[in-house]
Write a structure and sequence with these properties.
This protein is of the alpha+beta class. Helix content is 23%, strand content 29%. The chain contains two helices and nine strands. The strands form two sheets. The chain has a five-stranded mixed beta sheet with strand order 3-2-1-9-4, covered by helices on one side. Strands 5-6-7-8 form a four-stranded mixed beta sheet. Strand 1 and strand 2 form a beta hairpin. Helix 1 packs parallel to helix 2. The longest helix has 21 residues. The radius of gyration is 16 Å and the shape is globular.
């Protein structure tokens, strides 16, 4: 998939922050904590806000669990990432740009973009394919150890 303009901007910003952190760590200034990404998912609003060091960088529509399913709430760290994954539970359904965070739950792309903004998933957090790629790149560049996924009602 072609690298989008926003993905390139994310990479540039990440490199700049990494360079600054290395300079600070080398004693060329005061060393601060590593940059952190927080993906705050609101089930009631069906939105995800991506914050970098406490500042909102993105706001995207999502789809969380539809009727009869549950999206877990709480604060989670990414456990694994896959550019492409196929659900073992739901008929090999494609899950592009998956960031898994709790058991089999993940933030991932969906082809069902018209359903975004409404509950529609089996419990995962669905994003527009472009936004899922951007989020995947953010987590990849900043690191899963510096990422939290916070899901609230």
């Amino acid at each position: 998939m072609a690298t989008t303009f926003s993905t390139r901007l994310i990479n540039i910003a990440a490199c700049a922050l990494t360079g600054a952190a290395l300079m600070l760590g080398a004693g060329i200034g005061r060393a601060d904590a590593a940059s952190e990404i927080v993906a705050r998912v609101s089930i009631s609003e069906q939105k995800m806000r991506a914050l970098v060091d406490g500042r909102e960088a993105f706001e995207w529509k999502v789809s969380t669990a539809g009727k009869g399913y549950v999206t877990p709430t709480g604060s989670f760290k990414p456990t694994r990432m896959h550019e492409m994954w196929y659900s073992r539970k739901y008929d090999n359904a494609p899950m592009p740009h998956s960031v898994f965070f709790h058991e089999g739950y993940a933030v991932h792309a969906t082809p069902h973009v018209k359903r975004l903004g409404r509950p529609a998933s089996h419990g995962c957090i669905r994003l527009h394919p472009d936004h899922a790629e951007d989020f995947f790149e953010l987590v990849k560049v900043f690191g899963p150890q510096n990422t939290r996924i916070v899901i609230v009602q």
